[in-house]
Amino acid sequence: MGIKIVAENKKARFDYHILETFEAGLSLTGSEVKSLRAGQCTLKDSYVAFVGPEAYVQKMNIAPYTASSYNNHEPERRRKLLLHRLEIDKLMAQVQEKGFSCVPLKVYFKQGRAKIEIALVKGKLKGDKRQTIKTRDANREIQRSIRHSKR
Question: Which residues contact 135 (CB under 8 A, 6 or more apart)?
Answer without folding.
Answer: none
